[in-house]
User: Which sequence fits this backbone?
Protein backbone atom coordinates (compact mmCIF):
# COMPACT_ATOMS: atom_id res chain seq x y z
CA UNK A 1 0.00 0.00 0.00
CA UNK A 2 1.32 3.43 -0.91
CA UNK A 3 0.61 6.08 1.71
CA UNK A 4 -1.39 9.12 0.68
CA UNK A 5 0.24 12.55 0.79
CA UNK A 6 0.30 14.38 4.11
CA UNK A 7 -1.76 17.17 2.58
CA UNK A 8 -4.81 14.93 2.41
CA UNK A 9 -4.18 12.93 5.55
CA UNK A 10 -6.58 15.11 7.53
CA UNK A 11 -8.96 15.85 4.66
CA UNK A 12 -12.15 13.85 4.82
CA UNK A 13 -14.42 12.85 1.96
CA UNK A 14 -16.89 15.67 1.25
CA UNK A 15 -19.97 15.26 3.51
CA UNK A 16 -22.42 15.14 0.60
CA UNK A 17 -20.36 12.57 -1.27
CA UNK A 18 -20.77 10.19 1.70
CA UNK A 19 -24.36 11.13 2.49
CA UNK A 20 -25.51 10.65 -1.09
CA UNK A 21 -24.07 7.11 -1.03
CA UNK A 22 -26.09 6.46 2.11
CA UNK A 23 -29.25 7.87 0.50
CA UNK A 24 -28.66 5.74 -2.62
CA UNK A 25 -28.33 2.70 -0.40
CA UNK A 26 -31.60 3.59 1.39
CA UNK A 27 -33.32 4.03 -1.97
CA UNK A 28 -32.08 0.64 -3.12
CA UNK A 29 -33.94 -0.76 -0.11
CA UNK A 30 -37.09 1.00 -1.39
CA UNK A 31 -37.07 3.98 1.01
CA UNK A 32 -37.65 6.67 -1.66
CA UNK A 33 -35.79 9.42 0.19
CA UNK A 34 -36.89 12.99 -0.60
CA UNK A 35 -33.63 14.90 -0.83
CA UNK A 36 -33.94 18.52 0.33
CA UNK A 37 -30.23 18.76 0.98
CA UNK A 38 -28.22 19.52 -2.12
CA UNK A 39 -27.94 22.98 -3.71
CA UNK A 40 -27.83 21.88 -7.33
CA UNK A 41 -30.45 23.77 -9.38
CA UNK A 42 -33.01 21.40 -10.89
CA UNK A 43 -34.37 24.02 -13.33
CA UNK A 44 -32.94 24.11 -16.87
CA UNK A 45 -30.80 26.90 -18.33
CA UNK A 46 -32.48 29.33 -20.76
CA UNK A 47 -33.33 27.77 -24.13
CA UNK A 48 -31.13 30.16 -26.11
CA UNK A 49 -28.22 29.08 -23.91
CA UNK A 50 -28.61 25.36 -24.58
CA UNK A 51 -29.36 26.11 -28.27
CA UNK A 52 -26.07 27.98 -28.49
CA UNK A 53 -24.23 25.11 -26.82
CA UNK A 54 -25.66 22.57 -29.27
CA UNK A 55 -25.03 24.76 -32.30
CA UNK A 56 -21.49 25.57 -31.27
CA UNK A 57 -20.71 21.92 -30.45
CA UNK A 58 -21.87 20.93 -33.95
CA UNK A 59 -19.21 23.11 -35.57
CA UNK A 60 -15.95 21.55 -36.64
CA UNK A 61 -13.72 24.27 -35.25
CA UNK A 62 -14.85 24.40 -31.61
CA UNK A 63 -13.17 21.28 -30.25
CA UNK A 64 -9.56 22.27 -29.82
CA UNK A 65 -7.86 23.28 -26.58
CA UNK A 66 -8.82 26.79 -25.64
CA UNK A 67 -6.90 29.74 -24.32
CA UNK A 68 -6.22 29.61 -20.56
CA UNK A 69 -7.71 33.09 -20.28
CA UNK A 70 -10.81 32.00 -22.29
CA UNK A 71 -12.21 33.64 -25.41
CA UNK A 72 -12.27 37.46 -25.35
CA UNK A 73 -16.06 37.43 -25.89
CA UNK A 74 -16.58 35.60 -22.58
CA UNK A 75 -14.32 37.97 -20.67
CA UNK A 76 -16.13 40.96 -22.22
CA UNK A 77 -19.52 39.47 -21.36
CA UNK A 78 -18.39 39.05 -17.74
CA UNK A 79 -17.10 42.64 -17.60
CA UNK A 80 -20.39 43.90 -19.09
CA UNK A 81 -22.36 41.80 -16.63
CA UNK A 82 -20.41 43.30 -13.71
CA UNK A 83 -21.03 46.79 -15.07
CA UNK A 84 -24.75 46.25 -15.74
CA UNK A 85 -25.68 44.43 -12.52
CA UNK A 86 -23.11 45.51 -9.93
CA UNK A 87 -21.97 48.88 -11.23
CA UNK A 88 -18.37 47.65 -11.26
CA UNK A 89 -15.95 48.59 -14.04
CA UNK A 90 -13.52 45.82 -14.95
CA UNK A 91 -10.90 45.60 -17.66
CA UNK A 92 -11.96 42.44 -19.49
CA UNK A 93 -8.37 41.70 -20.56
CA UNK A 94 -6.60 42.05 -17.24
CA UNK A 95 -9.15 41.92 -14.41
CA UNK A 96 -11.41 39.02 -15.42
CA UNK A 97 -10.49 35.35 -15.45
CA UNK A 98 -13.10 32.69 -16.30
CA UNK A 99 -12.66 29.46 -14.32
CA UNK A 100 -13.91 25.89 -14.52
CA UNK A 101 -16.33 26.53 -11.65
CA UNK A 102 -15.90 28.59 -8.53
CA UNK A 103 -15.23 25.60 -6.23
CA UNK A 104 -12.19 24.94 -8.39
CA UNK A 105 -11.45 28.66 -8.05
CA UNK A 106 -11.27 28.30 -4.27
CA UNK A 107 -8.47 25.80 -4.79
CA UNK A 108 -6.65 27.87 -7.44
CA UNK A 109 -6.74 30.99 -5.27
CA UNK A 110 -5.47 29.03 -2.27
CA UNK A 111 -2.66 27.57 -4.39
CA UNK A 112 -1.75 31.00 -5.73
CA UNK A 113 -1.52 32.79 -2.37
CA UNK A 114 -0.96 30.36 0.50
CA UNK A 115 2.38 28.99 1.66
CA UNK A 116 2.56 26.29 4.32
CA UNK A 117 2.03 27.94 7.69
CA UNK A 118 0.30 31.06 6.32
CA UNK A 119 -2.78 32.05 8.27
CA UNK A 120 -6.12 32.08 6.49
CA UNK A 121 -9.37 33.28 8.03
CA UNK A 122 -12.50 31.30 7.21
CA UNK A 123 -16.11 31.85 8.26
CA UNK A 124 -17.82 29.58 10.79
CA UNK A 125 -20.37 28.56 9.56
CA UNK A 126 -19.12 28.58 5.97
CA UNK A 127 -18.75 26.72 2.70
CA UNK A 128 -16.50 23.73 3.56
CA UNK A 129 -14.22 24.10 0.49
CA UNK A 130 -12.42 27.19 1.94
CA UNK A 131 -11.12 25.14 4.84
CA UNK A 132 -10.16 22.03 2.91
CA UNK A 133 -8.35 24.02 0.22
CA UNK A 134 -6.36 25.87 2.90
CA UNK A 135 -5.58 22.64 4.71
CA UNK A 136 -4.32 21.08 1.50
CA UNK A 137 -1.91 24.02 1.19
CA UNK A 138 -0.62 23.35 4.71
CA UNK A 139 -1.97 26.73 5.81
CA UNK A 140 -2.96 27.60 9.34
CA UNK A 141 -6.76 27.79 9.30
CA UNK A 142 -8.32 30.18 11.80
CA UNK A 143 -12.09 30.43 11.79
CA UNK A 144 -14.00 33.59 12.65
CA UNK A 145 -17.48 33.52 14.11
CA UNK A 146 -20.62 34.39 12.25
CA UNK A 147 -23.42 34.67 14.78
CA UNK A 148 -27.12 35.29 14.41
CA UNK A 149 -26.98 38.13 16.96
CA UNK A 150 -24.48 39.91 14.70
CA UNK A 151 -26.60 39.30 11.55
CA UNK A 152 -24.12 36.63 10.49
CA UNK A 153 -21.47 39.30 9.81
CA UNK A 154 -17.89 39.02 11.09
CA UNK A 155 -17.07 41.09 14.14
CA UNK A 156 -14.03 42.70 12.50
CA UNK A 157 -13.27 44.97 15.47
CA UNK A 158 -12.82 42.07 17.85
CA UNK A 159 -10.70 39.67 15.85
CA UNK A 160 -7.61 38.55 17.74
CA UNK A 161 -4.70 40.98 17.17
CA UNK A 162 -2.06 38.26 16.74
CA UNK A 163 -4.23 36.42 14.26
CA UNK A 164 -4.72 39.63 12.31
CA UNK A 165 -1.01 40.31 12.23
CA UNK A 166 -0.38 36.82 10.85
CA UNK A 167 -3.35 36.58 8.46
CA UNK A 168 -2.67 36.63 4.72
CA UNK A 169 -6.08 35.80 3.35
CA UNK A 170 -9.74 35.84 4.39
CA UNK A 171 -12.78 34.19 2.81
CA UNK A 172 -16.16 35.88 2.98
CA UNK A 173 -19.36 34.96 1.16
CA UNK A 174 -22.28 37.38 0.81
CA UNK A 175 -25.08 36.65 0.16
CA UNK A 176 -24.06 34.06 2.68
CA UNK A 177 -24.35 30.33 2.44
CA UNK A 178 -25.63 28.69 4.62
CA UNK A 179 -27.26 31.54 6.59
CA UNK A 180 -28.92 33.42 3.69
CA UNK A 181 -27.67 36.77 5.04
CA UNK A 182 -27.45 39.42 2.33
CA UNK A 183 -24.56 41.75 1.81
CA UNK A 184 -24.84 45.38 2.85
CA UNK A 185 -22.83 48.25 1.46
CA UNK A 186 -21.56 48.93 5.01
CA UNK A 187 -20.14 45.44 5.54
CA UNK A 188 -18.46 45.50 2.12
CA UNK A 189 -16.96 48.92 2.90
CA UNK A 190 -15.71 47.64 6.24
CA UNK A 191 -14.18 44.59 4.56
CA UNK A 192 -12.41 46.64 1.90
CA UNK A 193 -10.94 48.93 4.58
CA UNK A 194 -10.00 45.92 6.70
CA UNK A 195 -8.19 44.36 3.73
CA UNK A 196 -6.18 47.54 3.21
CA UNK A 197 -5.45 48.21 6.87
CA UNK A 198 -4.24 44.69 7.69
CA UNK A 199 -2.82 43.86 4.27
CA UNK A 200 -5.03 40.79 3.94
CA UNK A 201 -6.39 39.44 0.66
CA UNK A 202 -10.17 39.37 1.17
CA UNK A 203 -12.03 37.16 -1.28
CA UNK A 204 -15.81 37.37 -1.55
CA UNK A 205 -17.42 34.25 -2.94
CA UNK A 206 -20.56 35.55 -4.61
CA UNK A 207 -22.56 32.80 -6.35
CA UNK A 208 -25.95 33.67 -4.83
CA UNK A 209 -26.50 37.36 -5.49
CA UNK A 210 -29.27 36.82 -8.05
CA UNK A 211 -31.36 34.36 -6.06
CA UNK A 212 -34.15 35.85 -3.95
CA UNK A 213 -32.30 39.13 -3.72
CA UNK A 214 -33.54 42.47 -5.04
CA UNK A 215 -30.15 44.17 -4.79
CA UNK A 216 -27.29 42.08 -6.17
CA UNK A 217 -24.02 43.51 -4.88
CA UNK A 218 -20.35 42.92 -5.50
CA UNK A 219 -17.57 43.50 -3.00
CA UNK A 220 -15.69 45.13 -5.88
CA UNK A 221 -18.29 47.92 -6.02
CA UNK A 222 -17.06 49.65 -2.86
CA UNK A 223 -14.23 52.12 -2.57
CA UNK A 224 -10.81 50.64 -1.95
CA UNK A 225 -11.82 47.10 -2.90
CA UNK A 226 -9.64 47.22 -6.00
CA UNK A 227 -6.54 47.12 -3.78
CA UNK A 228 -6.70 43.88 -1.77
CA UNK A 229 -10.03 42.26 -2.67
CA UNK A 230 -11.02 39.64 -5.18
CA UNK A 231 -14.41 38.24 -6.06
CA UNK A 232 -15.34 34.75 -7.17
CA UNK A 233 -18.56 34.35 -9.07
CA UNK A 234 -20.39 31.48 -10.71
CA UNK A 235 -22.83 30.57 -13.49
CA UNK A 236 -23.99 27.56 -11.48
CA UNK A 237 -26.81 29.02 -9.44
CA UNK A 238 -27.97 32.18 -11.23
CA UNK A 239 -28.18 30.48 -14.64
CA UNK A 240 -28.92 26.85 -13.66
CA UNK A 241 -25.61 25.73 -15.12
CA UNK A 242 -24.04 23.93 -12.14
CA UNK A 243 -22.87 20.91 -14.15
CA UNK A 244 -21.28 23.06 -16.84
CA UNK A 245 -18.52 24.24 -14.51
CA UNK A 246 -18.25 27.92 -15.30
CA UNK A 247 -17.05 30.42 -12.75
CA UNK A 248 -14.90 33.52 -12.73
CA UNK A 249 -12.55 35.51 -10.57
CA UNK A 250 -12.41 39.28 -10.89
CA UNK A 251 -10.19 41.95 -9.42
CA UNK A 252 -6.72 43.41 -9.45
CA UNK A 253 -4.54 42.48 -12.42
CA UNK A 254 -1.55 41.24 -10.40
CA UNK A 255 -3.76 38.90 -8.36
CA UNK A 256 -5.60 37.61 -11.42
CA UNK A 257 -2.24 36.91 -13.08
CA UNK A 258 -1.06 34.92 -10.08
CA UNK A 259 -4.19 32.74 -10.32
CA UNK A 260 -3.64 32.36 -14.06
CA UNK A 261 -0.15 31.01 -13.31
CA UNK A 262 -1.75 28.20 -11.31
CA UNK A 263 -4.67 27.65 -13.67
CA UNK A 264 -2.58 27.46 -16.83
CA UNK A 265 -0.51 24.70 -15.23
CA UNK A 266 -3.51 22.71 -14.03
CA UNK A 267 -6.29 22.87 -16.62
CA UNK A 268 -6.31 23.33 -20.37
CA UNK A 269 -9.09 25.83 -20.86
CA UNK A 270 -12.86 25.60 -21.10
CA UNK A 271 -14.77 23.85 -23.92
CA UNK A 272 -15.51 26.60 -26.48
CA UNK A 273 -19.25 25.79 -26.85
CA UNK A 274 -19.59 26.16 -23.07
CA UNK A 275 -17.89 29.54 -23.28
CA UNK A 276 -20.08 30.73 -26.16
CA UNK A 277 -23.25 29.57 -24.44
CA UNK A 278 -22.11 31.30 -21.24
CA UNK A 279 -21.88 34.57 -23.16
CA UNK A 280 -25.51 34.03 -24.18
CA UNK A 281 -26.48 33.46 -20.53
CA UNK A 282 -24.64 36.53 -19.25
CA UNK A 283 -26.54 38.65 -21.79
CA UNK A 284 -29.99 37.40 -20.71
CA UNK A 285 -32.46 40.16 -19.82
CA UNK A 286 -33.51 40.80 -16.21
CA UNK A 287 -36.72 38.86 -16.85
CA UNK A 288 -34.62 35.67 -16.65
CA UNK A 289 -33.88 36.33 -12.97
CA UNK A 290 -37.46 37.46 -12.31
CA UNK A 291 -38.85 34.17 -13.62
CA UNK A 292 -36.37 32.00 -11.76
CA UNK A 293 -37.09 33.87 -8.56
CA UNK A 294 -40.83 33.48 -8.95
CA UNK A 295 -40.33 29.74 -8.71
CA UNK A 296 -37.90 29.96 -5.78
CA UNK A 297 -40.28 32.26 -3.90
CA UNK A 298 -43.06 29.66 -4.19
CA UNK A 299 -40.73 26.92 -3.03
CA UNK A 300 -39.58 29.06 -0.14
CA UNK A 301 -43.19 29.23 1.09
CA UNK A 302 -43.33 25.42 1.07
CA UNK A 303 -39.97 25.22 2.86
CA UNK A 304 -41.38 27.55 5.51
CA UNK A 305 -44.31 25.13 5.97
CA UNK A 306 -41.83 22.29 6.56
CA UNK A 307 -39.89 24.36 9.07
CA UNK A 308 -43.11 25.27 10.88
CA UNK A 309 -44.06 21.59 11.14
CA UNK A 310 -40.60 20.85 12.55
CA UNK A 311 -40.92 23.65 15.11
CA UNK A 312 -38.00 25.64 13.66
CA UNK A 313 -37.61 29.42 13.55
CA UNK A 314 -36.16 31.34 10.61
CA UNK A 315 -35.69 34.71 8.97
CA UNK A 316 -38.03 35.13 5.98
CA UNK A 317 -35.70 37.59 4.21
CA UNK A 318 -32.93 35.17 3.26
CA UNK A 319 -31.15 35.26 -0.11
CA UNK A 320 -29.83 32.28 -2.01
CA UNK A 321 -31.36 28.92 -2.71
CA UNK A 322 -31.64 27.68 0.87
CA UNK A 323 -33.62 28.23 4.04
CA UNK A 324 -31.47 28.34 7.17
CA UNK A 325 -33.40 27.68 10.35
CA UNK A 326 -32.96 27.24 14.07
CA UNK A 327 -34.15 23.91 15.46
CA UNK A 328 -36.03 23.63 18.76
CA UNK A 329 -33.91 24.46 21.82
CA UNK A 330 -32.09 21.50 23.30
CA UNK A 331 -31.92 19.50 20.05
CA UNK A 332 -28.68 18.71 18.17
CA UNK A 333 -28.63 19.27 14.40
CA UNK A 334 -27.30 15.88 13.35
CA UNK A 335 -29.60 13.79 15.54
CA UNK A 336 -32.49 16.04 14.46
CA UNK A 337 -31.95 15.46 10.74
CA UNK A 338 -31.07 11.79 11.23
CA UNK A 339 -34.42 11.20 12.94
CA UNK A 340 -36.24 12.81 10.01
CA UNK A 341 -34.19 10.84 7.49
CA UNK A 342 -34.64 7.46 9.17
CA UNK A 343 -38.29 7.88 10.17
CA UNK A 344 -39.72 9.98 7.33
CA UNK A 345 -37.17 9.47 4.56
CA UNK A 346 -36.68 13.20 4.08
CA UNK A 347 -33.09 14.47 3.93
CA UNK A 348 -32.27 17.95 5.26
CA UNK A 349 -28.73 19.24 5.78
CA UNK A 350 -27.46 19.61 9.36
CA UNK A 351 -25.92 23.03 10.07
CA UNK A 352 -22.86 21.42 11.65
CA UNK A 353 -21.32 20.48 8.30
CA UNK A 354 -20.64 24.20 7.85
CA UNK A 355 -18.78 24.51 11.16
CA UNK A 356 -19.41 24.42 14.90
CA UNK A 357 -21.57 27.57 14.79
CA UNK A 358 -23.99 25.61 12.62
CA UNK A 359 -24.96 23.56 15.69
CA UNK A 360 -28.63 24.14 16.44
CA UNK A 361 -29.43 24.92 12.79
CA UNK A 362 -30.51 23.07 9.65
CA UNK A 363 -30.56 24.04 5.97
CA UNK A 364 -33.28 23.20 3.46
CA UNK A 365 -32.42 23.48 -0.22
CA UNK A 366 -34.91 25.09 -2.60
CA UNK A 367 -33.58 23.02 -5.51
CA UNK A 368 -36.44 20.52 -5.56
CA UNK A 369 -39.74 20.89 -7.34
CA UNK A 370 -42.96 21.76 -5.54
CA UNK A 371 -44.23 18.17 -5.80
CA UNK A 372 -41.28 17.02 -3.74
CA UNK A 373 -41.86 19.75 -1.16
CA UNK A 374 -45.53 18.81 -0.92
CA UNK A 375 -44.65 15.14 -0.54
CA UNK A 376 -42.21 16.05 2.24
CA UNK A 377 -44.88 18.15 3.95
CA UNK A 378 -47.26 15.21 3.84
CA UNK A 379 -44.71 12.83 5.34
CA UNK A 380 -43.66 15.25 8.05
CA UNK A 381 -47.20 16.15 9.01
CA UNK A 382 -47.59 12.52 9.95
CA UNK A 383 -45.01 13.07 12.71
CA UNK A 384 -47.21 15.71 14.21
CA UNK A 385 -50.40 13.67 13.93
C1 LIG B 1 -20.79 29.41 -1.12
C2 LIG B 1 -20.51 28.59 -2.33
N1 LIG B 1 -19.43 28.88 -3.07
C3 LIG B 1 -19.13 28.19 -4.17
C4 LIG B 1 -19.91 27.12 -4.57
C5 LIG B 1 -19.49 26.34 -5.78
O1 LIG B 1 -20.10 26.75 -6.93
P1 LIG B 1 -19.55 26.29 -8.35
O2 LIG B 1 -20.60 25.40 -8.90
O3 LIG B 1 -19.34 27.54 -9.13
O4 LIG B 1 -18.27 25.57 -8.12
C6 LIG B 1 -21.03 26.77 -3.84
C7 LIG B 1 -21.83 25.61 -4.28
O5 LIG B 1 -22.50 24.95 -3.57
C8 LIG B 1 -21.35 27.53 -2.69
O6 LIG B 1 -22.42 27.24 -1.94
Assistant:
Amino acid sequence: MIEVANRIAEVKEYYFSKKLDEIREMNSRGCDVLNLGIGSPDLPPAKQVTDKLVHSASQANTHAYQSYRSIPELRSAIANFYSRHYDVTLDSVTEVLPLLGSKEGVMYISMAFLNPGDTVLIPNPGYPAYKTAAEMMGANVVSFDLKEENNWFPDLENLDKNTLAAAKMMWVNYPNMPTGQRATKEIFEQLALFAQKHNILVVNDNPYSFILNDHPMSLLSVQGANENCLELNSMSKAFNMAGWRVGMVCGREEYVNAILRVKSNVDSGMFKPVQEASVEALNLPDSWFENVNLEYAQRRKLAERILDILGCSYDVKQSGMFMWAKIPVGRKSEEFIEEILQERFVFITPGTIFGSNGEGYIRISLCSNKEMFNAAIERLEMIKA
Notes: The mean pLDDT is 96. The radius of gyration is 21 Å.
